[in-house]
Amino acid sequence: MVCIMITGSIGGRLGKQMNFETEFEFARIGGESIIKFPSVFAEGAKILLFACGSVVQLHSTETGEELKKLMHDAEVSFITVSDNLNKEFEVFTTTVDGFVNRWNWKDAVILTRWKFQDEVIQMHFIDSTLTSAYVIFKPSVAKNAMFNLVTFHQDGQFSTTEIFNNFSSSPQSFCFANNIKCFAFILRDSFGVIDLKGKQRRPIYHKHSAALITGHPTEPILATGSLNGEISVWYRIFQHQLSCTICHWHPYVVNHLVIRANSLLSGGQEQVLVKWDLRDLNGRHGKSFCARLHSAVKWITISPNSEMYAVCLDDNSVRLITPDMTVKFQFQYFVRRNYLESLASGDVGESPYPAGLLYNTFDFLSEKSPYTVITNGRIGELQFYCPVMNKNIMNVDVIQNEFVPEQEQSIVEKLSTDDHLHTYLKKRYLMSERLDGAIQFIDIASFAIMDDWLITAECFFAYLLLQKLCTTCLWIN
Questions:
Q1: Cβ burial 88-115 (10 Å sphere, 16+ → b, else e)
Q2: In the prediction, which pLDDT does 1 show?
Q3: pLDDT tens string 261-304
Q4: Are 413 and 399 in contact (CB under 8 A)?
Q5: What is the dihedral of CA 197, 176, 174, 209, to 10 degrees?
Q6: CA 333 to chain CA mean position, Å
Q7: Distance in angstroms (rounded) separating the CA atoms of residues 416 and 418
Q8: CA 153 to CA 458: how far, in whole Å?
Q9: Residue-wise pLDDT tens digits, 380-427
Q10: What's the pLDDT at 392?
Q11: Which pLDDT tens digit goes with each residue over 305-359?
Q12: What percent of the chain has pLDDT over 70?
């Protein structure tokens, strides 16, 4: 979903067929996703980088202030930084058209560019001179990814050596670990591990099919997530006596895992970030939670100094969370709905963002309110989005109920009753039921706004009654 401004004349003779391509000018000004891949920290936890379409934005984690924009000619596919504490960090970006860019980020100037035939989806430097890197390519003509050792030259040239090529290009299906000495990748009923220094390889068989894998940055430790929400932590991966610890809290498949120091972070559809203590995974105090994130967790990043977590959510936002599991700051752009949820809105409307698409001013916040587009946002919410600033101004929670899938409630009953979070989940209101696999949600069908008054009409299909129900609300500022 992108916001497009249209300029042109709408006059003309009645019955005349309008040619949008010749009579209107279209300009994309906002609405791009900022969660297509994990965010990146720099200078410890002081700066956060994320991509918004073809633009990489650098923000202060203290104030949220935008420090710089790095403009590209194509959509950005990966970001990495050389975070050397002894000198200024450098930014490396890749784009879908095969370019790798080395930036002077303070001046927003590209220092060197390299052009590859295929898209680079990951890149990890293995020396302090930033000349050699392990690079993962996503070929345009093949399903599997390619893992190469690339030597970069300052004149834009490079040399490459293939290491491995038989694994999925999904970024959650492979990882590096142990100071980039280990490479692991998911197979059908197991996962493979390669010792990049000793060239040793071994398969590790998995009781349940692994859906994703992650590695410890400095230790020979791996973690996998299964389709049933189970997490397995693997120790001594190159020793004869392999060790595995299993922990289970998530009722659904885990969307993302990340490890650093003694912590393992996980998140998924439950809209909860879980922090596990690797020293006491299944103990009474082995995990802590950051709940009520209002959207599913998609990506998690831990800062190099472990002082901050960046959590990308399905609603197109990034939340900064401290180690004590409190939300410090949020970057929210155009609120996007999950694709499957959008498909389920057929009973209400074909578009997941209708609600009038009104472009108007409002004075709920101040006398100088910006022009906004008012559409559906999260499930049961209206969003006020400013396309000029590409910023979410505010959200109005119309239904004021939590969304808890039926499957989650039934599984919560079987889990440990000692956890306060599970007690909280049991008491939450079940917003809708699922029958025959259909995903239910509420859509804001229409609204009217004048001065400090807002009227909304919400619409949903009640399967138990086999009819569509509508309710209206009057809002006064």
A1: eebbbbbbbebbbbbbebeeeebeeebe
A2: 42
A3: 999 999 998 899 999 999 999 888 889 999 989 889 999 999 99
A4: no
A5: 90
A6: 13
A7: 5
A8: 59
A9: 788 888 887 888 888 888 777 665 554 444 444 444 444 544 444 433
A10: 87
A11: 999 999 999 999 999 999 999 999 999 988 887 645 554 444 344 455 666 555 6
A12: 71
Dihedral over alpha carbons 189, 176, 314, 366 (to 10 degrees): 170
Claim: this prediction has a pTM higher than 0.85: no
Among the listed residues 393, 44, 42, the one whose alpha carbon sits nearest the alpha carbon of residue 57 = 42
Distance CA 156, CA 114 (A): 5
Residue found under tokens 């809209």: 271
In the chain, residues under CATH classification 2.130.10.10 are: 30-332
The tokens describing 37, both together, are 């891949």
User: What is the per-residue DSSP string for 271-316?
Assistant: S-EEEEETTSTTSTTSEEEE---SS-EEEEEE-TTSS-EEEEETTT
In whole angstroms, what is the distance from residue 162 CA to residue 215 CA? 22
Query: What is the rounded CA–CA span in Å between residue 67 and residue 58?
Result: 5
pLDDT tens, position by position, 122-139: 999 998 889 999 999 999
Q: Which run of H or E residues covers position 117?
A: none
Q: Which of 299, 283, 211, 196 is nearest to 247 (CA)?
A: 283
**Class of the CATH-defined domain 30-332:** mainly beta
